[in-house]
Amino acid sequence: MTARDWWKSAVVYQVYPRSFADSDGDGVGDLGGIIERLDHLQRLGIDVVWLSPVYRSPMADNGYDISDYEDVDPLFGSIEQLDELIAGLHERGMKLVMDLVVNHTSAAHAWFQESRSSADNPQRDWYWWRSPRPGFEPGTPGAEPTNWGSAFSGPAWTYDAATGEYYLHLFAPEQPDLNWENPEVRQAVYAMMNRWLDRGVDGFRMDVICLLSKVLVDGELPDGRLERDPLGAGVVDVTTYGDTTPLVVNGPRIHEFMQEMHREVFAGRPPGLLNVGETPATTIEQARLYTDPARAEVDMVFQFEHVDLDSGPQGKWDIVPMTMLDLKRSWGRWQDGLAETGWNSLYLGNHDQPRCVTRYGNDAPEHREQSAKSLATVLHLHRGTPYVYQGDELGLPNVGFTRIDQMRDIESLNHYATAVAAGQDPAAVMAALSAKGRDNARVPMPWDDSPSGGFTTGTPWIDVHPMASTVNAAAQVDDPDSVFAHFQRLIALRHDEPVVAHGTFRMLLPDDEQVYAFVREHDGDRLLVVANLSDVPDVVAELEEAPYDGADLLLGSVPGATPSPTDPLAPWESRVFRLK
Ligand code: NOJ
C-alpha cells in the first residue's frame, strides 16, 4: 500500500485509550493495554489505528486538552511504549494515526502559561485575549467580549483578573483557543507535527480543524446573531448565546491554513500518510474544497450531517425523531457530492457519539445483532474510507444511564448542571443524556465475561457496560456468525474487491422507507447491496435493477441464508451480491 490514495482500500479503527484495555490495574486504559490487544486488531483485519490523545494532559476533556504535545501522559504510559506500539503495529502491517488537537491547548500548556503571564508577554498573541465589553464590570455576566457560548456550557470567554482581560475557549475554560492568525503559532504546530512524523507515526486525525480560522471584523471578533444558523445544529446553547457557527466554522483563512500545513508537513514525504480532519457543521461544498487532491489540504474529513439528524432547533440535546430515509438521503447527497472530487470518511460511531446500533438500528434482543451487522454492511460498502469505533465490531449498544453520577464526561456533567439550574426537568435532561451522552461510547471495552469485562484488574474509572458478560470479544472472535466475524468479512471485502474501494455509487429506491439499496461499479464489475434497515419482516426490495440471474451472494448478514436479490428480507437483514 504505497499509492498516494492507499487509504481508499483501508479501514481505520479508533482506539479510545482510556477505555480500551488497562495493563497496570489503575482502572484506566493505557498503551500497555493496547499493545497486549494488537492481536484483536489484526484478527479484525483493519489497516490503521486512530489513537485518541495520549499526550500529557490534565484530562479535563480526557486528553483533548493537551499540555505537552511532545510526551505521553503517565496515566497512559511512556513515550517508549508509544514507540513500541508504533513498531508493533508496523510489524503487523498496520499504521498509527495520532489524534491531534491544535484548535486549542490545555490551559496548563507552557504556551498558555507564558501567554497569560502578562499582557505584554511575547506569546500573549498566541491565544485570543480581549478586553471586557465596555460599560460592564469586568468578570460579571455580560462583560464577555462577545456573546459566544462554549460547546461545554457557559460562555466561551473566561476572565483573567491578573491582566484584566478575557481569553477565548470554544470548549471548556481548560481549553483556550490558539490564535492561528499568528504565524508563530502555525510554525510551532507544524514543527511539532513534523517531529511526530519523523518519529514514525503515519498521520493525524485533526480535531475540529474547521474552527481554526475565526471571522474578524476590523481585527475584532464580532458578536453572533441571536437567530440560529440551520447548519449549527451543534452543541452551543443558542437560547442563551449568539450563533458562533458562521463566525468560527470554516472561517476566511481555513483553506489557506490547511494548504500551508500540507506544504509544511506532508509535501515531499513518501506516500503512506493519512491526514483526516474533523469538520462539524461543514457542507458538501466545503468538504470538496478540503478533500480535492489538487488543492492539497487533507485526505478526507469527518462531516457531521448524519450525526446531527436527530438534533432539533435547540441543538444536540433537543432530540428529534430520525428515520432511515433521513440517513439515506443525507448519505446519498454526500456520495453524489464527492463522487467526482474529494473523498468521504464513513462513520456511524466514535468517542463523541452514542452507540450506532441503538441510534440508527434497534438494540432490542431480537434485532441487535442483525442491525449491528447490516448498518455496518451499508456503511462499509459506500464509497469512502470506513471507520470502526472500538466495540462497534461487537455490536455494543448504549449503556442505559439512568443517573448523572454514572457519567463522567465534562460535556454531559456541565449540561446537566446548567440545564437543571435553568429549570429543566432533571428526568428529561437525563433522558437526553442517556440517549446521546458521549459516555455511551466510553465505558470500558468488554474483552471477556470476567468481572470488569477483562478491561482491568482494578476498579474501572467508569462502570463497565451492563452487557459486558454476554457481549464481549471472547464470545465473538471464534464464532463465524458473530458481529465480529461479519465485520471481518466486510473489511476483507474492501481489501479484495477493487469495486468496493474504487467503484462508483448509485443509490436505488431512494424513497423506500425500509430498503437501503445501491450499486457499486468499477471496470465492468458490479456489486448490489440490499438491506432492510427496519423491524418490518418479509420486506421485498422492488428493484428495477436486472438481471439477477446468477447474482452471486458475496456476503449476507443472516447465517446460512442463500437468497437472491428479490427474496424477502428479514428485519435488519442485508446482502451483498456480485451482479453478472
Ligand atoms: C472534538 C473531539 O472529538 C471531542 O472529543 C472534544 O471534546 C472536542 N473536539 C474538543 O477538543
Summarize the structure.
By secondary structure, this protein is α/β, with parallel strands linked by helices. The protein contains 16 helices and 20 strands. The two termini are 29 Å apart.
Structural summary, described in words:
The mean pLDDT is 96. It contains 16 helices and 20 strands. The protein is globular and about 75 Å long. It is 27% helix and 15% strand. With 580 residues, the protein is α/β, with parallel strands linked by helices. Helix 5 packs parallel to helix 7 (254-266) and helix 11 runs parallel beside helix 15. The strands form five sheets. It has an eight-stranded parallel β-sheet, covered by helices on one side. Bound molecules: 1-deoxynojirimycin (NOJ).
Radius of gyration: 24 Å
Which molecules are bound besides the chains? 1-deoxynojirimycin
What fraction of residues sit in β-strands? Answer: 15-25%
The computed structural class is alpha/beta
The total count of strands amounts to: 20
Helix fraction bin: 25-40%
Given as residue ranges, the uncertain stretches (5+ residues, pLDDT < 50) are: none
Overall geometric form: globular
Q: What distance separates the N and C termini?
A: 29 Å
Mean pLDDT across the residues is: 96
| Main beta-sheet annotation | 8 strands, parallel
Strand arrangement in the largest pleated sheet? 11-10-9-5-2-1-15-14
Secondary structure tally, helices: 16
